[in-house]
Amino acid sequence: MRFCLPGDFLAPSCLSNEFKGEQMVDVLNSMGLDLASFGNHEFEPEINASALKARMDESRFAWLNANFQFRDEAERNACCASGKMLPVDLIKLSDSHFICLFGVLGTKSPDHVGWVRRSKDILDQTFKIARDAQGGASPANPGRDVGFTFVAMTHQTVSQDRRLARMRPELTLIMGGHDHNVMRRGRVKRC
C-alpha cells in the first residue's frame, strides 16, 4: 500500500510565506507519506527553485513527475541523483505483474515559472520507462511477459483527466488532485 498526495501542499498559506513549505514537509514526513506529485501551488512565488529543492531534500517521500524538468542541469541532476524525483514508482505484486504509479502536472502549470520546462510525449515515455525498469518486453529480454497496471496521480482539471483516460486506455486509475470541489467518482467509457 502507498500513501499518496497529488500536489498542492507547499503553498499558499501564511506559514508558507514564512517557512517556504518546510512546515508541510515536516507534517507529511510525520504522517508517513510515501509519494507526492507536484501541483500548481508548488510553484507559487514564495517557492523558488532552491526552496523546492530544499523541501525535496527534507522529504522522506518520493516526488513523482513525468512531465517537467528543471531547466538548470545541476538542479535536474541533483534531484534525480538524490532519488527524490522519480518518473515512476513500481510496486511489485508478483514476478509477472507490477503497479506503475506516475505523476502528471496540469498543462498550464508551471508555465509561468522560468526555472522549469515541460517535457513532451510524457505518457509514451512513462510507459516505456516502466517496462524498461523491470526488463519487460524489450530486445534484451524478449521472452519475459510482464503486466502493468498504470495509475496516474494527476494535478489537472477533471476535463483533462477525462481526456487523458480516453486517450490512454492503459490507465486503470487516475487520482486527480487539482479541482477544489467535491467530485464524484466517474468512469470513462472506452471504445
Describe this protein with a few key phrases:
single chain; 191 residues; alpha/beta; Purple Acid Phosphatase, chain A, domain 2; four-stranded mixed sheet; globular
Can you tell me about this structure?
The protein is α/β, with parallel strands linked by helices and 191 residues long. It has one domain (4-176): Metallo-dependent phosphatases (Purple Acid Phosphatase, chain A, domain 2). Helices cover 30% and strands 25% of the residues. The protein has helices at residues 14-19, 22-31, 49-58, 73-81, 122-133, 158-167; strands at 4-6, 35-37, 62-64, 68-70, 85-86, 89-94, 97-105, 116-118, 147-155, 171-176. The strands form 3 sheets. Strands 1-2-3-5 form a 4-stranded parallel beta sheet, with no helix packed on it. Strand 2 (35-37), helix 3 and strand 3 form a beta-alpha-beta unit. It is globular and about 50 Å long. Mean pLDDT is 81; it is low at 137-142.
CATH architecture: 4-Layer Sandwich
CATH T-level topology: Purple Acid Phosphatase, chain A, domain 2
Rg measurement, Å: 17 Å
Q: How many β strands by DSSP? A: 10
Roughly what is the average pLDDT, rounded to an integer? 81
Could you say how many structural domains there are in total? 1
Contiguous runs where pLDDT drops below 50 for at least 5 residues: 137-142
* Residues in helix, %: 25-40%
- Which class in CATH terms? Alpha Beta
Sketch the major β-sheet.
4 strands, parallel
Number of helices: 6
Major sheet strand order:
1-2-3-5
In brief:
The chain is an alpha/beta fold and 191 residues long. The chain is built from six helices and ten strands, in the order E-H-H-E-H-E-E-H-E-E-E-E-H-E-H-E. Helices cover 30% and strands 25% of the residues.
